[in-house]
Amino acid sequence: MIGITHEEHDAHRRCWDLLPWVANERIAATDLARIEPHLRECAACQEELATQRRLREMMRGEAPIVLAPQASFQKLLRRIDAQEDDEPLDAPPANARPSPSPPRARRAPRWLAVAASVQALIIGLLLVGGWFQSQALLTAPRFTTLSTATAAPQGPVIRVVFRDEVTVGELNAIVRSLDAYVVAGPNSAGVYTLQLAGEHRSSEDVEQLAAKLRLDNRVLFSEPAIAESAPR
Hints:
By secondary structure, the chain is an alpha+beta fold.
């Protein structure tokens, strides 16, 4: 940054480092009062704050996927029955002989449709189950051994969004350098939830590491949080 004083540079750095706390409304009143003058005039800080607020809203707005195969199947059967009831039967010619088994012929289309629908439903459930299994294999096994059971996070955690160009190897190295492990993610917003290993689980340690991550140019967003329930 050319043409700015050392004091202005320090003010910009202080404001930038505190933006996650502004975005999640956890900043102390004294810190907010100190950075507000710079935030009102700095377009870069304003843009970064808007980005972090959008990411936070995306994390808050996530909804769980709910599968109800039985209800969907019953609804499908009702639609097939309703369609059959609405279809008029063609009147036979006057000189036509009666068919020996009209009930069987009339019922065949319904059961063919039901069989095809059941097959499609089973295939869909298998695909969904395979997707969930692949997501589990793509997250936890990267950072934990197969013998490690990852419990639901409790206490302070760090929520992190990495840049798209970060490789799996780089992400793994970053997590290991923090002596942490991934307990959730990435979700649809690309957010990972990290928890510190061993006894280093105080809120102060988590906030310091979140601030350290924000200095890494491979990290888009980093904030401390409190895990109150199992991650989705």
